[in-house]
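Q: My labmate handed me this sequence with no annotations at all. I'd like to see what the chain might look like in three dimensions before we decide whether it's worth expressing. Could you predict it?
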Amino acid sequence: MRVISGNLKGRPLKAVPGKTTRPTADKVKESVFQVMGPYFTGGRCLDLFAGSGGLGIEAISRGMDTCVFVDQSGLAIKTINANVDNLGIREQSDVHRADANRAINALAKKGNAFDLILVDPPYKKVNYAKIIERLLEHNLLVDKGLLYCEHDPLELLPESTNQLSIIKQAQYGQTIAVTIYEFSREGEQIHE
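A: Here is what I predict for the chain of 192 residues:
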């Protein structure tokens, strides 16, 4: 595992020990960041279910100002911290051990909103529709913000809505699919 592009290009990343975490393949990272960026001119990123932190680190390398990394596994948090320290990006990183729902609530209470949210949970263990609904309910995406979901090809993710437009759906091999949405505040319902 390595950083694919940007100012940290080629730097190695530690993987989470064991078989419970599945890192995103380098060829998948390269392909999806070409759609999402490929480079950013600042912004804030949330890496939910961060694992080793590889996706959020890639976003920082490609120009995001900061990234909040969230995972509920102690081993994952230890690995993220090691990667962040080894790459010298501690000042741009905020690492939290929490489950996704608690993290969403805490981030919303602090008034956070992100330009890019990365959702890559263990396959078939999370209801994507509920996670997406919670992210939108809590206003965690800025207008024109991107939502990246990596999932099993057999898992069906929500279609485009008045707030979310699918800008890419792709399958990589037999085991990985990616859906990338763009968020639009114009589609929000105005309550009086």
